[in-house]
Write a structure and sequence with these properties.
Layout (H helix, E strand, L loop, with lengths): L7 H17 L12 H24 L3 H7 L2 H51 L3 H9 L1 H30 L2 H7 L5 H15 L1 H6 L3 H9 L11 H25 L13 H25 L9 H20 L8 H29 L1
Length: about 350
């Protein structure tokens, strides 16, 4: 099937690959030695929010600068602000994982981001868009897929709550060294809701994307979202990079990059790798959108659901669920199964949209 005609199955696969990237991007940080958080996070931010997306955009969008110079100023500002809002959520994403672990932390944060980022952006497009979500077969099925993903997230959350009740403090600390449910939930709510700003921004540049297809030499349909992506991530870079520099100055950790006993090039490499992997999830989101047609908004739910799915599998591998009861594991597996089903339903909604 030609790419421009759309292929929902391929779109779902691309979104799920993005979810995998979102679930594993944090792992390279574990290899960084003798650097403060703000030092390696700054490298991650520069690479993931600027270097990788801009290099890719220049490589795939021959009209990138012409598009951005002629795009509506209001739309560019909106996308940047949404990226900045995400930036505040992204700053606390690592803190959420620190308190709750990879499995439970990503489930709660990504779950809130999924619900807000999937259903609200299309509603901002007006009454016709809202009507199509709840009156057309494709829209109804796609909304059902989003709700299924939320249901899967609820089951995973119940599994996390059950785990909290079953394990003693010593066991919790062995799996997650700084486990703290109360702090973790508070951070997860803030981080999840603010992180949904990425979805608002990536879906908030229709004129920019249209110009990418029209201004000669035109960008292909597959890569038409790259100009939008670089603008959104620029807003995120301002927040993340600015905060890290402030902490470097405040905590006197700017010398980390020349610190004796800190492996400079391995640390740079691992932090940069984390940024490149992180950025891949939103590259997948924008390249998967054209395959879904009118139901492209469901991509955010699939991306977040996939991130949760893979994060739970990762959590199982890391021993975060060790020592829990069969009941807790059943809740977890039920949640994962529902998340998989939601991806399939989303793909079916995409096919209905094509028809």
């Amino acid at each position: 099937m030609p790419v421009d005609a759309g292929n929902p199955a391929l779109g779902i696969l691309i979104f799920m690959l993005g979810g995998l990237a979102g679930a594993i991007f944090y792992l390279p940080f574990k290899k960084v030695r003798n650097w403060a958080w703000e030092s390696y996070w700054l490298i991650y931010a520069v690479v993931g929010l600027a270097v990788v997306p801009w290099l890719l955009a220049f490589a795939t969008s021959p009209n990138l600068l012409a598009v951005l110079s002629s795009a509506p100023r209001g739309e560019i500002v909106y996308c940047m602000v949404c990226g900045a809002v995400w930036g505040f959520g992204g700053l606390t994403w690592g803190l959420m994982i620190r308190y709750l672990g990879v499995g439970l932390g990503l489930a709660m944060g990504a779950g809130l981001a999924s619900a807000a980022g999937t259903l609200i952006p299309p509603m901002l497009k007006g009454r016709d868009a809202i009507a199509s979500m709840f009156t057309t077969p494709a829209g109804i099925v796609s909304v059902a897929a989003a709700l299924l993903s939320v249901a899967g997230i609820v089951f995973v959350g119940l599994a996390g709550r059950s785990k909290e009740n079953e394990l003693d403090d010593k066991a919790k600390k062995q799996a997650v060294a700084e486990f703290n449910l109360k702090k973790g939930i508070g951070v997860a709510i803030f981080s999840g809701l603010m992180s949904s700003g990425m979805s608002f921004g990536l879906q908030g540049g229709p004129q920019i994307q249209k110009l990418a297809l029209m201004v000669s030499p035109a960008t292909s349909t597959v890569w038409a979202g790259m100009p939008v992506l670089v603008v959104v991530l620029l807003g995120g870079l301002v927040v993340n990079g600015g905060w890290c520099i402030l902490l470097n100055l405040k905590n006197k950790t700017a010398g980390d990059y020349l610190k004796k006993g800190a492996p400079l090039f391995p640390n740079l490499g691992f932090a940069a790798l984390a940024g490149a992997i992180w950025c891949s999830q939103f590259i997948c989101f924008k390249t998967g959108e054209p395959q879904m047609g009118a139901t492209s908004y469901i991509g955010w739910a699939v991306l977040m659901a996939s991130m949760i799915l893979f994060s739970q599998l990762l959590g199982l591998m890391l021993g975060e669920w060790k020592g829990t009861s069969k009941k807790t594991i059943r809740l977890l597996l039920t949640g994962l199964a529902v998340l998989l089903v939601s991806a399939g339903v989303a793909g079916y909604g995409g096919y209905l949209g094509m028809r």
